[in-house]
Design a protein that fits this description.
Largest sheet of chain B: 7 strands, mixed
Number of helices of chain A: 13
Radius of gyration of chain A: 23 Å
Distance between the termini of chain A: 47 Å
Number of strands of chain B: 15
Helix content of chain A: 25-40%
CATH topology of the largest domain in chain B: Rossmann fold
Order of helices and strands of chain A: EHEEEEEHHEHEEHEHHHHEEHHHH
CATH class of the largest domain in chain B: Alpha Beta
Helix content of chain B: 10-25%
Oligomer: heterodimer
Shape of chain A: globular
Radius of gyration of chain B: 20 Å
Strand content of chain B: 25-35%
Order of helices and strands of chain B: EEHEEEHEEHEHEEHEHEEEHEH
Strand order of the largest sheet of chain A: 3-2-6-7-8-9-1-10
């Protein structure tokens, strides 16, 4: 991977260089307090593009998988049908995507483009997408109370799957790393200068420093992967989790790695319908309900069990070579019952400690 | 079950994952137009729908399906549902047998011959009929569970010399709930296959067996082939549980009992997530599983 140096005051010039290459650039903008949102960069708002902002609550997943996406348009005339697939794949760059969300998009890539049936709607959008990752180095602005990418091994600095990565070295300097040929092509811009070994060393120092600034470290995360994979989480722990779930589906909608959708036909005119896919959620009671009413996953704790099994079971991690949890902490922020990933990891740890009577190890190691 | 995490590698790619994002790929969600040819009543609320693809090339491609696979059926403006394929690929006609149970199936039931709907597929793994060459096949079906198994039975009959004994054990609630009566009659009269039928509640004039389908397996005079046999089980959940218990008691190994599972599905191609049971996406990892696999899915069926 090639690295270059740039001045942080030239940030807007970099954004404009990407826009000049024909990309619609979306970037996180600040609203009130810690509220931020992705919006398209224009000549008017480009002055408000910042390097350090809290990660938007609503993930960038929608740029590859819109909440509602039309698949087909079907017209009926004289008893005959005309079916047209409708594609929308703008050339788009996400500027300032956080490392956790880079991992989220990578997981979606593995899922939607993998196995027997690659998804053409996803592939078309994905091919046109450029990712400019910003490393979270500002403990106040970049890192929230719920962030735990250090546990899922997805951050604070993504190792790959970005086109360009920017990291604040302080003193008005940014280290830019190219992760793809498209990212490297941006180094032609005059804002970039050569980076020295000293800058790479500074990057390493900052990263080891920032790792200590995370407030939520779910130290039992990898053990939870093991417990969930083995199916050794006690049933009553799932019940405890299920009892706290309000079945709102919020966790799945803010999750950068959740993939499920439903499909619906709706009229768009006389003799004209469209078939759309809509984000769906395993938290909702009807998710597995079949015609006729039989529902194999009726109880809420079975559905919660499902969510965490799908995210953490070793089988899926091995199959997809990517985990469906990226440590962004959004589920912890959205959940009214506080059964987001960090809490669930803690509940499983507590249950395992009770179940297996794990005694604390004495300090002197006896 | 395939464990396959491979991403299709395209010749050209750009951006992240250089080369790993596939180029133009087939739209797997695109239904192909089909014409309804005729409708046959089976039992109350269950009909068989004969159909063909508008495009002859699609018809030829589709006909290479395997017993146990399924298709996604589109009723435009209403939606799509998964339907098993009761015909055997050795037969000429394509048809679905569908119970009127929800909005999409109701729309299919309302369709008239000559009208157009959509079909895509075939999907799923299907029964590995080649793996069973030289073995005895024991079919245990309850109610409309005979729909997917019909394909295997007809297939095995068409390749009679490749298999050992063929036995069909079929049960329904009442005589009027018996599916495919014309097939049952032919099977009962056939020399190549032993067909035993039972009903839970007899009606006037019923001279056959009475009792649940499991009772047939233990009935004096009936000799279930256990050694070198594969048992196919399909039926409602209660029947499934008891039939499995009976077969295990008879000495069947868990890996020699196969079934086909049913789930709510929206895509049929492993993406929408509705049909998952534990580690399996029923649409692509199944719908056919051995009982040994079913027990290891990590979630109750």
């Amino acid at each position: 991977m090639k690295a270059r140096l740039m001045r942080s005051e030239d940030l807007a010039m970099l954004v404009n260089a990407i826009r000049r290459r024909g990309y619609e650039v979306v970037a996180p903008f600040c609203n009130k307090g810690r509220d931020t949102y992705y919006d398209t960069v224009t000549d008017e708002n480009i002055g408000r593009v910042r390097l350090h902002v809290p990660n938007p609550y609503y993930p960038p997943k929608r740029f590859v998988l819109p909440p509602i996406e039309r698949l087909l348009r079907v017209k009926r005339a004289n008893g005959a049908y005309d079916i047209q697939a409708t594609y929308e794949a703008p050339k788009r760059a996400i500027f300032g995507i956080r490392s956790c969300d880079v991992a989220g998009i990578y997981h979606l890539d593995r899922f939607y483009l993998g196995r027997e049936f690659p998804d053409t709607y996803y592939a078309r959008r994905r091919r046109e997408l450029l990712l400019v990752n910003v490393v979270c180095t500002n403990a106040e602005l970049d890192i929230s109370d719920a962030c735990f990418c250090v546990c899922t091994d997805t951050g604070p600095a993504a190792r790959d799957h970005f086109d360009l990565q920017l990291m604040d070295l302080g003193a008005g300097e940014l280290l830019a790393v190219a992760g793809s040929s498209a990212g490297e092509a941006l180094f032609e811009e005059p804002i970039f200068t050569r980076a020295a070994q000293e800058h790479v060393e500074r990057r390493r120092q900052i990263l080891s420093e920032v790792r200590k600034r995370f407030k939520t470290t779910t130290c039992w995360f990898s053990a939870t992967v093991r417990y969930v994979s083995q199916g050794s989480v006690p049933e009553r722990t799932w019940e405890e989790i299920g009892n706290r779930c309000l079945e709102c589906g919020g966790c799945t909608y803010v999750c950068p790695a959740c993939t499920c959708f439903t499909v619906s036909d709706r009229p768009t005119g006389r003799d004209e319908i469209e078939r759309v896919r809509i984000w769906d959620s395993c938290a909702l009671g009807g998710f597995t309900r079949m015609a006729g009413g039989h529902n194999p996953r009726k109880s809420v704790h079975d559905r919660r069990n499902r969510r965490f099994f799908r995210k953490l079971a070793h089988y899926f991690i091995q199959r997809e070579l990517s985990m469906a949890c990226v440590g962004c902490g959004r589920c912890a922020a959205v959940c009214h019952g506080d059964v987001g990933m960090p809490s669930v990891v803690e509940m499983i740890r507590r249950a395992a400690a009770l179940e297996e009577k794990i005694e604390p190890v004495p300090a002197d190691g006896r | 079950m395939g464990v396959n995490g491979k991403i299709t590698v395209a010749a050209e790619g750009r951006g992240v994952l250089d080369g790993a994002i596939p180029g133009p790929v087939e739209n797997v969600y695109m239904p192909k137009l089909a014409v309804l040819d005729g409708v046959q009543d089976e039992i109350a609320e269950v009909k068989t729908f004969y159909w063909h693809f508008v495009d002859a090339a699609e018809q030829a491609k589709f006909r290479a399906f395997r017993p146990g696979q399924f298709a996604q059926v589109s009723l435009f403006g209403v939606g799509e549902f998964p339907a098993s394929l009761p015909p055997s690929p050795t037969e000429d006609e394509l048809f679905f047998t569908v119970r009127n149970v929800g909005s999409c199936t109701a729309a299919l039931h309302a369709l008239k011959p000559g009208e157009i709907f959509g079909v895509r597929g075939p999907y799923g793994n299907g029964f590995p009929m080649e793996q069973y060459y030289g073995r005895n096949l024991v079919f245990v079906a309850g109610g409309i569970g005979l729909i997917p198994l019909r394909s295997c039975i007809v297939y095995a009959m068409a390749h009679r010399e490749r298999y050992g004994r063929l036995q069909v054990f079929y049960g329904a609630r009442t005589p009027s709930d018996l599916m495919y009566v014309r097939d049952l009659k032919a099977w009962e009269e056939s020399a190549g296959l032993e067909c035993h039928v039972t009903v839970d509640r007899p009606a006037d004039g019923w001279k056959g067996n009475v009792g649940v389908v499991g009772s047939l397996l233990k009935k004096p005079g009936i000799n279930v082939a256990v050694a070198n046999s594969t048992a196919f089980v399909c039926g409602p959940p209660v029947m499934f549980r008891f039939a499995i218990k009976d077969l295990l008691q008879l000495g069947f190994a868990e890996r020699d009992i196969v079934s086909t599972l049913e789930r709510y599905m929206k895509c049929g191609v492993g993406k929408c997530g509705h049909c998952c049971i534990g580690v399996a996406y029923v649409c692509v990892d199944g719908p056919v599983f051995t009982y040994e696999q079913i027990k290891k899915l990590g979630e109750d069926i």
